[in-house]
User: What shape does this take?
Amino acid sequence: MSTVTLHIEGMSCGHCLKAVRQALQGIPGATVDSVQMGRATLQTTAEGPTPEALAERVTAAGYSATAEVLDARHP
Ligand SMILES: [Cu+2]
Assistant: This one.
């Protein structure tokens, strides 16, 4: 498991929180820990999406996101 933090720009209200959460939910191998203003944290498995792919999901939802892997464990 890795903890991926997304730094997100462009969020301003509760709707943004909901939109970002929806963009990150239902991705195989990724579990949403939290979505806050300007930041989302997820747990990913080895088979799960790359941090970049997660950032792209948020970008596709209309925000600007960069990914940071906090606790990567590579086999
Ligand atoms: Cu908003």
